[in-house]
Amino acid sequence: MKTCCITGVITFARDYDEVVKNMPLDRIMVETDAPYVTPVPHRGKRNEPMYVEFVARKIAEIKKLPEEEVFRQLVSNTKRCFGV
After folding, report:
1. What is the rounded CA–CA span in Å between residue 28 and residue 33?
2. Cα–Cα distances in Å, from 15 out to 57, 74, 82?
3. I need a labelling partner for 59 at 20 to 30 A (CA). Which of 12, 27, 29, 45 fits?
């Protein structure tokens, strides 16, 4: 299975909830699409890379997992992807 990159769109659109629910957490990466597609709660403003936190929080909510578990796995995924 390939890795999927999830963006801020999941914070305001329900179109990808099933994808997120069914995608293994070790195959998810996150990004913000800055300066576009600003996640809730900053909709209507310029998107910033630091808003990636809201994407990660939404993944935890959708998957019904503790935020810290999701954050740890996303960092691990990023390190693996970039060979860090």
Report:
1. 15
2. 17, 21, 29
3. 45
